[in-house]
Amino acid sequence: MFSGQLPHYLEPRKLVRQGGEISGHTTVAALPRLAEFQSSQDSVVRARLAFEQDEDGHHCIRGEVHTELELRCQRCLEPVRYEVNASVELALVWSEDQARALPEHLDPWLASDEKMVLAELLEEELLLALPLVATHEQCPEPLDNPAAGAGAGANEGSDKPERENPFAVLERLKKGPRE
Fold first, then answer.
1. Which residues contact 20 (CB under 8 A, 6 or more apart)?
2. Domain segments of the chain as ranges
3. What pLDDT, on a 0 to 100 scale, did the predictor assign at position 152?
4. Could you tell me the maximum CA-CA distance found in the chain, to the nearest angstrom?
5. What is the Cα–Cα distance from 145 to 7, expressed in whole angstroms?
6. What is the structure's pLDDT at 153?
7. Where do runs of H (alpha helix) occur along the chain?
């Protein structure tokens, strides 16, 4: 069992045979595919992974990966801190045929006979756990929305001239020949 700073490389077959478990931490900066999260590079990534063989003989990796990233709120465009929690349930496979033969509840992780780069697994799981759209629960300051006050009196007190309705021309053409 490893603990503390996460190792860079793992020997997955050996860990499965031994029923090994690793837990520890690293930083977002150590995960190259998360480089776009500039303001989160110092955030701690915590992981706990168990390597085991299931009842069907599959070599599995199960566990969790956690971190906190700063994303852009899609409502107000301000930064929002988002806690990313990824649940890991993978089966180690060494060929495409093995991947196709897996049960649906297991996702394949294509491994080689060489050492496995742990950062790749952590990156993949965290990226898959990101929300499709990041938003604050309650935005601190809403953006000025000119369309929000488009009802009666929307231009009262403003210096902007009222724009003509672009469909007014069509309305006049429609009424014109009948009059």
1. 1, 2, 14, 50, 51
2. 9-129
3. 45
4. 91
5. 49
6. 47
7. 12-18, 96-100, 118-129, 168-175
Q: Is the pLDDT of residue 53 over 70?
A: yes
List the structure tokens of 113: 């006979």
d(CA 66, CA 29): 14
The SS3 assignment for 167 reads: coil
Entry pTM = 0.70
Token output for 96: 């495409």
Helices (H), 2-140: 12-18, 96-100, 118-129
Q: In the numeric block, which tokens belong to residue 178? A: 């009948």
Q: Where are the beta strands (DSSP E) in 6-153?
A: 9-10, 21-27, 44-53, 59-72, 79-93, 107-110, 116-117
Chain segment 115-159, per-residue pLDDT in tens: 888 889 899 999 999 888 888 777 876 555 555 444 444 445 556
Distances (CA, A) of 29 to 32, 35, 37, 72, 175: 7, 7, 9, 19, 67
